Amino acid sequence: MRKEITAFVAHCDNCCSVKAVHMKAGLLRPLPIPGWKWEEVSMDFISRLPTSVKGYDSIWVTVDRLTKVAHFILVQTEYRPHQYVELYFEHFVYQYGVPRTIILDHGP
Questions:
Q1: Where are the domains of the chain?
Q2: Looking at domain 29-104, does it have CATH number 3.30.830.10?
Q3: Exposed, middle or buried, 40 (CB in 10 Å: 0-12/13-18/19+)?
Q4: DSSP 8-state assignment for residue 21
Q5: What pLDDT, in 10s, does the model give residues 60-98?
Q6: How far is CA 71 from each of CA 5, 30, 32, 47, 87, rounded to the nearest angstrom?
Q7: How far is it, in rounded angstroms, from Cα 57 to Cα 78?
Q8: What is the 3-state secondary structure (H, E, C) of 64-103?
Q9: Which residues, listed in sequence order, are joined to residue 63 by a DSSP beta bridge?
Q10: Which phi and psi angles does 36 have, rounded to 5°?
């Protein structure tokens, strides 16, 4: 039973994100500084907002890690992945190119 519990905890997102007091935490390693603007970006969503007149209820936030320039795009929670791809190409790829890395927040 101990092996089953250990295996479950190792694959549980909530269990992996919370460190107990008795566990030793390793040193934090900061992300390396990007070499050029829009080479590395971070993305997050602000959701559960009141619905606007045009039906938007979320904001897609994309931030350049080097310059800290942010883009805010109004979106709907019902958007499908292909709609996000179209928006991403329209707002970012055509202007800045494809980033080397994208950091996402894996929240709800």
A1: 29-104
A2: no
A3: buried
A4: T
A5: 999 999 999 999 999 999 999 999 999 999 988 888 899
A6: 43, 23, 22, 16, 12
A7: 9
A8: ECCCCCEEEEEECCCCCHHHHHHHHHHHHHHHHCCCCEEE
A9: 42, 70
A10: -150, 155
